[in-house]
UniProtKB/TrEMBL annotation:
Domain of life: Bacteria
Signal sequence, start to end: none
Limits of the Integrase catalytic domain: 86-181
The name this protein goes by in its record: Integrase catalytic domain-containing protein
A Pfam family assignment: rve
Amino acid sequence: MVRQSRAGWYYQPKEKDDAPLLRRMEEIAATRVRYGFWRIYVLLRREGWLINHKRVYRLYRQAGLNLRRKRPRRRKAAAHRLERVVLAAPNQCWSMDFVADALFDGRRFRALTVVDNFTKECLAIEVDAQFKGKDVVAVMERLKHQRGLSQRIQTDNGSEFISLALALNQNAEFSSSGRTS
């Protein structure tokens, strides 16, 4: 009358024990901190677990293993920050950075500043409308002939500091003199 099979009427659901699977997921998440649920699922399948990705996702969320979607920038930068070196003499550490401003008529300009961190002396200020890596290399070459090389140069990751021209010159200079930046 209802057109339902007898097997469905008498079916008894079987309880699945998720404890061993959950323990293994927690072990993987503890050793591989940056792995999300898909990578954990793939690792479990490689280990021979015959499981559905939906079950893994449900247990992953239930155990609170989900990764933060966006990491706080301040903490991320602080985690990779090196300790400050105690300076004892000039030319141990220089800092390089760019400053940007605009003239009264709206034209923009940039200034490259190089400062000795021990003496707080400004070693160079170069002003131009735009800077390329080769311009930074020219300023550093001039400073090398005037004062010698610094043991360490601190910069941010600006496009001028990660250019090919600066990298080639830096590798040639520092590998021949044995200094690091």
